[in-house]
Design a protein that fits this description.
Blueprint (H helix, E strand, L loop, with lengths): L2 E3 L29 E5 L8 E4 L5 E10 L5 E8 L5 E9 L3 E9 L2 E8 L8 E9 L5 E8 L4 E8 L2 E7 L6 E6 L4 E6 L6 E8 L5 E11 L2 E10 L4 E7 L6 E11 L2 E10 L16 E8 L2 E2 L3 E4 L6 H19 L12 E4 L3 E3 L2 E21 L5 E22 L5 E14 L7 E5 L2 E8 L2 E8 L2 E10 L8 E14 L2 E11 L8 E13 L1
Antiparallel strand pairs: 1-35, 2-35, 3-4, 4-5, 5-6, 7-8, 8-9, 9-10, 11-12, 12-13, 13-14, 15-16, 16-17, 17-18, 19-20, 20-21, 21-22, 21-23, 24-26, 25-26, 26-27, 27-28, 29-30, 30-31, 31-32, 33-34, 34-35
Length: 522
């Protein structure tokens, strides 16, 4: 079995944090996990973590401090792989901005900051902060995009930053920034009044950008293209990604590269009368699709209904499948003509052993009802009820392997328990270990993990507790729990925890932002 080993260690890195350490007597740091706790006032604080491989990690947050020109200071702290503090620095940013994306390359992290919702500032600023991880050198690039525009994609390669900018109901753009010279250039995604970038990635071998763009042709019809741009916006290649059927719509699209070819993978939806869910939305998906592209030609496209997956009964419910099978048999139709539609969150595609591995998390919005008593004009009591959004409940993650021709080779899954989040960001980490894949996530202060080998389950779902600072500590609640792969077989777990310790005479309850170094081992 995989097990989780924890060593705890607290450091003072910011004003107001008390330093307590459990440091070995010989001043050495054994190769075991560590933990840091920072007191928090609420779970809405802005602490975030960026893993930087063997260069450590960067923890940062937005402070309450402002400068004379009304900018807000963000504090950044670098920790090494033993969670020892390396440096602390602050950077003033525009007050109406928030953190959006990051990307690591070589020894540098690039962070994109942009408007967080509506802004009083008439200029729609974005800022790219480059941080040299080892010494804390910081370089800031500032630019503007048109009012109402939102940066939905970000990438950095060979000293160039690329921003995928969308404007609701209008034509989107690509912004290209030469970081050292501070030169910004923007260009249109292509022809059309309503065209948006859905996915993009800078090419590692050339100074170009690959992107998936969607062009709305009619109210109910969108065309999808795989496009490659150079730094001037010239379209070097454009491939129409056809769906072969007007009732099918691509809901999420990702791209992975094979030698001499590319694979377009994602999810699709369909709205014909056979749908088992009457109130489906455009974003809901019926299954997965795979489409290999060679040169400027889409070779084929294959669709795989969720109902036809090998582990379908574990994902969508055995009773639902049985009912649809009976309905299909009665009407002499195939099961693929029906659908149970779900909201899915796609990961970036991983290429391993000449396979494309697709990962998709299934979720649904969760609500609860609250009621209160009110009185009418005549003083008579009546009950009012309303729904309160609790977040998105994640309940399953599907992993599937495809060959270079787009054929589905295998599928598997991991059940997600007690995981509700307001953020639509990936929760499950997939870690290759030899011929196996480790699937893991954090929930309620525990790490859930499952080991698979294609369709076979090597080790079933198991949970390991994340130890707290003191033996008498008791975890009351965890919020915004996150698990990240760090380097090798090491991971980072972080989030907010309510902790109680009845052995303490005073201050026996505390809310902390924590992060721990975890090691998985067989």
């Amino acid at each position: 079995m995989w097990r989780l080993t924890i060593l705890l260690f607290i450091l003072a890195g910011f004003p107001g944090i008390t330093a307590i350490s459990q440091k070995p007597a010989d001043n050495s740091y054994p190769d075991k996990p560590l933990r840091i706790e920072i007191p928090a006032r609420s779970v809405n604080e802005t602490y975030r973590i960026i893993p930087c491989g063997t260069n450590g990690l960067i923890m940062f947050f937005r402070s309450q401090e402002t400068t004379e020109d009304a900018r807000v200071k963000w504090y950044f702290t670098c920790y090494d792989t033993n969670l020892q503090q390396v440096w602390v620095k602050s950077v003033p940013l525009f007050g109406d901005q928030d953190y959006r994306f990051y990307q690591n390359w070589k020894d540098t992290s690039a962070l994109l900051f942009g408007h967080a919702g509506k802004s009083k500032n008439p200029e729609n600023y974005f800022e790219i902060l480059r941080i040299v991880q080892q010494n804390g050198t910081m370089v800031l690039n500032t630019g503007t995009i048109e009012p109402g525009a939102v940066v939905d994609a970000f990438g950095v390669e060979k000293g160039l930053a690329w921003l995928g900018v969308n404007v609701r109901g209008q034509a989107g753009k690509i912004v290209n920034i030469r970081l050292k010279k501070g030169i910004n250039k923007e260009f249109s995604l292509g022809n059309g009044n309503q065209i948006a970038v859905l996915w993009m990635k800078p090419d590692t071998a050339s100074v170009t950008l690959s992107a998936i763009v969607g062009r709305q042709v009619t109210k109910k019809n969108t065309e999808y293209y795989l496009v490659r741009y150079d730094t001037n916006g010239t379209i070097m290649r454009e491939v129409l990604v056809g769906t072969q059927a007007s009732e099918r719509t691509l809901t999420q699209v990702k791209v992975a590269g094979f030698p001499g070819a590319e694979m377009i993978l994602g999810s699709y939806g369909q709205g014909f009368s056979g749908s088992a869910q009457k109130n489906r939305t455009v974003d809901e998906s019926t299954g997965f699709f795979a489409s290999p592209v060679r040169g400027t030609t889409q070779k084929s496209i294959s669709f795989y209904n969720f109902l036809e997956l090998h582990h379908a009964s574990s994902i969508v419910g055995e009773n639902d499948i049985m009912n649809l099978k009976k309905k299909a048999l009665k009407k002499k139709k195939s099961l693929s003509e029906y659908s149970l539609d779900y909201s899915v969150l796609m990961h970036e595609i991983i290429v391993k052993d000449n396979q494309c591995i697709l990962t998709a998390e299934f979720f649904s919005p969760q609500y609860h009802t609250e009621s209160f008593t009110d009185f009418d004009f005549y003083g008579r009591p009546y009950t009012n009820s309303y729904s309160v959004f609790d977040g998105y409940r994640f309940y399953n993650t599907v992993v599937a392997g495809f060959d270079p021709e787009g054929k589905l080779l295998w599928d598997n899954y991991i059940e997600m328990r007690n995981l509700v989040s307001f953020d639509l960001t990936p929760k499950v980490v997939m870690y290759p270990s030899g011929n196996d894949l480790v699937l893991c996530y954090v929930s309620d202060g525990k790490i859930g993990s499952k080991i698979i080998r294609d369709s076979t389950v090597v080790e079933k779902l198991d949970f390991s507790g994340i130890e707290l600072l003191n033996p008498d500590d008791k975890l009351l609640a965890e919020t915004k729990g996150t698990l990240l792969h760090w380097y090798g077989n090491y991971f980072l777990s972080y989030g907010y925890q309510d902790i109680k310790n009845i052995a303490l005479e005073a201050n026996n309850k505390r809310l902390v932002f924590y992060f721990s170094k975890l090691r998985f081992e067989k």
